[in-house]
Design brief:
Distance between the termini of chain B: 34 Å
Helix content of chain A: over 70%
Number of helices of chain B: 10
CATH architecture of the largest domain in chain B: 3-Layer(aba) Sandwich
Oligomer: heterodimer
Number of helices of chain A: 14
Distance between the termini of chain A: 27 Å
Helix content of chain B: 25-40%
CATH topology of the largest domain in chain B: Rossmann fold
Shape of chain A: globular
Radius of gyration of chain A: 22 Å
Strand content of chain B: 15-25%
Number of domains of chain B: 2
Order of helices and strands of chain B: EEEHEEHEHHHHEHEHEEHH
Number of strands of chain B: 10
Bound molecules: adenosine-5'-triphosphate, magnesium ion
Radius of gyration of chain B: 19 Å
Largest sheet of chain A: 2 strands, antiparallel
Amino acid sequence: MKRPSFSFLTPVLTPVRVAYASLPFSVRRWTMPILLVLFFVVALLSPSFINLYWQQVLIYVGINIILTASLNLVNGYMGEFSVGHAGFMAVGAYVASILTVWVFPRWGLEAYIAYLFPIALLVGGLAAGLTGLVIAFPSFRTRGDYLAIVTLAWNMIVKSVLENIDAIGGPRGFMGMQKLTSVAWVYVWVVFTIYLLRNLVYSNFGRGTLSIREDEIASSLVSVDTRKVKITVFVVAAFFAGIAGGLFAHIIQFINPRSFSILKSTDVLVMVYLGGISSLGGSILGATVYTVLLELLRPLQVWRWVVGPLLLVLLMIFRPRGIMGMQEWPFLIPREERAERVAALMERIRGRREAFAATAPVGGSSD
Amino acid sequence: MPILRIRGLTHYFGGLRAVHDFHLDLEPGELVGIIGPNGAGKTTVFNLITGVYRPTEGEIFFNGHNLVGKRPDQIVSLGIARTFQTIRLFKELTVLDNVRIAHFARTRYGVMSAMFRLPQYVREEAEIRERALELLDLMGLLEQANWVASSLPYGLQRRLEIARALATEPRLLLLDEPAAGMNPGEIADLMELIQWIRRRFDLTILLIEHQMRVVMGICERIKVLDFGETIAEGTPAEIQSNPRVIEAYLGEEAIA
Ligand SMILES: Nc1ncnc2c1ncn2[C@@H]1O[C@H](COP(=O)(O)OP(=O)(O)OP(=O)(O)O)[C@@H](O)[C@H]1O
Ligand SMILES: [Mg+2]
């Protein structure tokens, strides 16, 4: 398929890209770490010079990076279509909030609440992961649109269940959370998440996931336990959505079932497909661009909620792989996977070959 | 004792009987061919052996394991690997990754080990990387290790598919029309390659092929299918002079 690209951007982007690519790798590999460090410095100092509003935006960017990168595992790397990520976020948000608002204080731990916050988040994430397991089991018996339907139903069920449990506020929502989420905390979790996901992606599981996306039958016929891979990846994605939910609850300090509707899931989908499938760097980019964009579109009021779904449709038609589809920032590639390391290993193997001189007949007439 | 033993294998697709009462005993180290006109049921036999379909009837035993009802990945782990009639590489992944994926079943580390880069993960990954590159080197694909699979010329894609199958460390290799789409020169290389890997990896090979030159040239025994039925069986010489075979192929391809 020929896809029209954002060709009007080419005159601007191409020189930048060329200039960047011409830098030596030793320089390029530091780009992201330096940006990240800068970011952290900004984040830590932010209370003193960034106003509260932009601090919040920074926090939302971070939360959305976690949501996007985790959903990318399922929708990008694996090529399935999960549309209920906000459902897992809700589980994490409510569980973490119940812990910090009711459980920890009841145990007389109120004074330590800031230290217990990571534990609340982890428990929220585990709860979300557990629900992910329950969803994944039946969903991955067959391939196809089944997952989309199940996750759609899941998202709606979570919302209506929450609306009907009066003890946690029903449709009115749940409040009383302290503002435990800070810019610095969010980005600690972002780095943690991206690091763990990167390691997963460059493992057997990650490669298995990609192979399922390319050809599931062929994948199982080269020994990949496709069902195990799919379930594992789905549960990991749900876990991180739960973490993001907990962080979210402790910044807005008030959650209600509507915060976790299909609209929220759609936003995450947009960020995945905007940034690029099968790319963690793409997810970081997509989440950042889209979150900031939505903030800038605030004056549009209700109309800005049209932007997400519309953008999603346009992306799926014109640029289904997103900005960085299947590409990765060098700094997100593990050291041992980088071209020069692999080249060195190849060189060693070539050196050893002479000793055996037993390679397969190559023949002169092929290719 | 045969390494593969198939008895009364029958498979229906709805009302269509694609394979009927198929029998086969493969002795270790044999190279056996399956031929037959289009739609004869050859690929279906491979799909039944590898667990892609569950047979309507019949038994398949591999080294004493009953394969019926097992998942494809379990069957591969037992030591059966295959290639496909139309190439099914992971096109957008690198040559190296295509081969590394085939190490899945023999890798022991878990998700946690991978996510936290525990020693087991680091060690096993290093092993996989090295073994995959060694295999690529053996197969003459080392220089293309970092290429995206789809960018390989056709002949090398076929070769990579064989390399990927070998990476699962099979005892039995099933090749489904490996010479399809190749020119005479490439076919000659392929025949040499098949015999070489058979010796090098100590394999038993079952080969589907339309190219009579290949089948007659390298197979020790041949089975002929037509409309799901086994119509003949024997050495290449016997098959070439069998009147039923000549009839089944009449007008399609001369048996040279
Ligand atoms: N998944 C399927 N569903 C329905 N019918 C099928 C399926 N796979 C194969 N068939 C039918 O079963 C019969 C045998 O097909 P098969 O692919 O095994 O033939 P083959 O001998 O490999 O032929 P070819 O030389 O063309 O590859 C054909 O009539 C085919 O149309
Ligand atoms: Mg066939």
